[in-house]
Design a protein that fits this description.
mainly beta; about 500 residues
């Protein structure tokens, strides 16, 4: 005990208790520390005698000295020591923790015993106390000192279990972000700028509108943000039915029931909506069709445009020649009128046209001769119309995908001409299709008011979004992926376009 009292740090700590001694008493403010068991107090009648357990005081002094030595000589524990400590703790209490870790109440309460036992009443364990040889060695190894009595809650612990989730859990879920209100009639088509967060919509109100999705304004009827159009394209004399944007984002092309295709020079996304009229925005008109135009698509490499019309022809246009019309493709009479058209992305010399008779035809662009006929009528009910409303070519594979009036989506092998898959995709006619730039997902729109996202590998629906309201039994006319940003969009008969992120 003498070596304990000889420690200068111990004497300094005990000196903190000198204020307890009465000035009238013996020592006048100095503690009687010869035996280390009690302090000298004034025995006058006005002073109460302090009852102190000698053994308790000795024990506290020993613990204090051991704690000081532990602080000086302790090293930071390695990982194996910590793991052994956790194993010992688990073995002592025989508690099996759930996979998500202990309940928060147990984490924040170090005095709780096993989870299934009620809390025992009694004094808290001293922060510097040593409860036994195991606990003493544990605290010595950790070198925590005063921190030994603390329990830390790791708020990030539940997140580590997300890493073990399946890949499907990381698939993006699309949520509605913007509702674009400005058109006065149904929105028939839409297309994204290839780089900027810009959307162009085409409507039956004879106009096209450009929207910068980063220029938002407070909504009038809600706390959300709205997007106002930054430019309106006016030149068509009839409803605008189809639309496409060039690969560099400088031009867009629109087809209309007025049988013309208009070329537009897209203004800057930062244009002021109230700027003076710019006559250079309107480019040339491609004239040649004699009836309504229902589809246009552009080839990013060749700078060529395909269009299909109710005049039963598909036409190929050059966007750089003074005489733009390059070729005209006419199908057999039994095939009906073309309803949709697309370039075969993996074969630069071919294109595919879909017809109202449920047949899609692959053409050679140079010779204008049919290469293969994709017949979607096989396996369909003879009394039900299975007209093809939209045809798209896969961006990397020799696969053609068709959307049908009889609620089906069908897949064809371009090499063999055979149908390789078919599925009932919606509750009403499927009107539109879009494949994401990587060729992994398919987006479909229908008159059942929903858009659906499909995994092209498994042919399963991974998300359904109820997007628009019906008008005259029609709902969604077009869907689109942004080529480089996480946006999708839908166009509806309710005169709205909706953007999802």
């Amino acid at each position: 005990m003498e070596d304990v009292l000889a420690d200068p740090e111990t004497e300094e700590a005990l000196a903190e208790f000198d204020f307890l001694v009465s000035e009238a008493g013996e020592g006048a403010g100095e503690a009687k520390s010869t035996d280390g068991a009690e302090w000298g107090l004034d025995k006058s009648p006005t002073t109460e005698e302090w009852a102190m357990d000698k053994n308790l005081l000795n024990k506290l002094k020993e613990e204090f000295k051991k704690e000081r030595k532990t602080k000086k000589g302790a090293k930071r524990p390695n990982r194996s020591t910590l793991q052994a400590m956790l194993a010992n703790l688990g073995g002592d209490d025989d508690i099996v923790m759930p996979a998500g870790g202990p309940p928060r109440s147990a984490i924040n309460n170090p005095d709780l015993g096993p989870l299934d036992e009620p809390r025992k009443e009694g004094p808290r364990r001293a922060v510097l106390g040593v409860g036994g040889p195991e606990e003493e060695s544990l605290e010595a190894a950790l070198g925590l000192g005063d921190l030994a009595g603390l329990t830390v809650t790791n708020e990030a612990e539940p997140l580590q279990y997300d890493v073990a989730a399946t890949k499907e859990a990381f698939r993006k879920t699309w949520n509605p972000k913007y509702t674009l209100r400005s058109h006065f009639d149904a929105v028939r088509a839409l297309a994204f700028h290839p780089i900027e967060p810009v959307l162009i919509t085409a409507s039956e109100d004879h106009t096209l509108k450009m929207w910068n999705l980063q220029k938002t304004v407070p909504a009038k009827k809600s706390a959300s943000l709205d997007v106002e159009p930054i430019y309106t394209f006016r030149a068509h004399s009839g409803p605008v039915t189809c639309l496409c944007v060039s690969s560099n984002g400088d031009q867009c092309y629109s087809g209309s029931t007025d049988s013309t295709i208009r070329c537009w020079n897209i203004p800057s996304p930062n244009i002021d909506p109230y700027d003076a009229f710019d006559p250079t925005v309107l480019g040339q008109a491609l004239v040649g069709h004699t009836d309504a135009i229902w589809g246009v698509t552009i080839h990013s490499v060749k700078q060529q445009l395909l269009s299909c019309s109710s005049d039963c022809t598909v036409r190929l246009w050059s966007l750089q020649n003074k005489s733009p019309l390059l070729n005209t493709y006419t199908a057999e009479k039994d095939d009906g009128a073309p309803t949709s058209v697309d370039f075969v992305r993996c074969e630069l010399s071919q294109m595919v046209a879909a017809y109202s008779s449920s047949v899609a035809v692959l053409y050679d662009l140079e010779t204008a001769q049919p290469v293969a006929k994709l017949d979607a009528r096989q396996g369909s009910d003879s009394g039900v119309s299975c007209q093809i409303n939209r045809v798209v070519a896969h961006p990397t594979l020799p696969i053609t995908i068709t959307a049908h009036e009889d609620r089906h989506i069908k897949f064809f092998d371009n090499n063999s001409g055979k149908m390789v898959n078919t599925m009932v995709a919606h509750l009403d006619a499927v009107t539109s299709l879009a494949v994401d730039p990587n060729g992994l997902y398919l987006l479909s729109g229908s008159h059942d008011c929903s858009i659906r996202l499909w995994n092209l590998d498994s042919k399963t629906c991974v998300q359904e979004i109820t997007s628009h309201r019906k008008k005259f039994d029609e709902s969604i006319f077009d869907v689109a992926f942004h080529p480089s940003k996480p946006y999708i969009a839908s166009a509806g008969a309710d005169a709205l376009a909706k953007v999802f992120v």
